[in-house]
Design goal:
heterodimer, A: 115 residues, mainly beta, 6-stranded mixed β-sheet, 4-stranded antiparallel β-sheet, 12 strands, 0% helix, B: 114 residues, 7-stranded mixed β-sheet
């Protein structure tokens, strides 16, 4: 079974629209970490955020915000006022207490932001 | 800035050839990883190494081997390349710690096996 599900394969928005990328995870561990990465067309994955399972506070960083809800096993990512430079593939990932070095990645969501 | 470099951005090899993909990191990271990325499948872990000469199999190690003789360098070896190994290969590194450290990625090598 998939440990991380990103059901949205591709999303297209027009610049300045808000967009939310969904991430649902599955784990039996009480201690785990969740991550979001951005992969622009250049190919290199860029780390965006890490959140541990004991911190359910939402986080905001500029136009980016993350909503972590343990009750629904979700860690969704919202981009406010999207820009063309946000066009990329976004990956959500999970690591568990039994082996923090091992990341389980979702299949990614391709975001197209059109001018 | 953390820098992870990979020896080639694009590589074309023939079926049956032995292929070496090299990865170097300059941040003295203990952990290094090799992933392959395929459309619709995300990133899948092939092997990782948590110290020099130490390695562990990931989810899809078949057909691959690795070598880590120096801390900064982690090589992925395709002993006899096959067409189903055509893919994007990503190397990553992270610090060794008691908690999950973010992984830093290289630019990737797009390998085509004909």
């Amino acid at each position: 079974a998939q440990k991380v599900t990103q059901a949205q394969t591709e999303i297209s928005v027009v610049e300045k629209e808000d967009v939310t990328l969904d991430c649902v995870y599955e784990t039996r561990d009480t201690t785990y970490y969740l991550f979001w990465y951005k992969q622009p067309p250049s190919g290199e994955l860029v780390f965006l955020i890490r959140r541990n399972s004991f911190d359910e506070q939402n986080e905001i960083s500029g136009r980016y915000s993350w909503n972590f809800q343990k009750s629904t096993s979700s860690f969704n990512f919202t981009i406010t006022a999207s820009q063309v430079v946000d066009s990329a593939v976004y990956f959500c990932a999970l690591s568990e207490a039994n082996n923090f070095n091992k990341f389980y990645f979702g299949s990614g969501t391709k975001l197209n932001v059109k001018p | 800035d953390v820098k992870v470099t990979q020896s080639s951005r694009y590589l074309v090899k023939r079926t049956g050839e032995k292929v070496f993909l090299e990865c170097v990191q300059d941040m003295d990271h203990e952990n290094m990883f090799w992933y392959r990325q395929d459309p619709g499948l995300g990133l899948r872990l092939i092997y990782f190494s948590y110290d020099v000469k130490m390695k562990e199999k990931g989810d899809i190690p078949e057909g691959y081997s690795v070598s880590r003789e120096k801390k900064e360098r982690f090589s992925l070896i395709l002993e006899s390349a096959s067409t189903n190994q055509t893919s994007m290969y990503l190397c990553a590194s992270s610090t060794g710690s008691a908690r999950a450290s973010e992984q830093y990625f290289g630019p990737g090598t797009r390998l085509t096996v004909t």
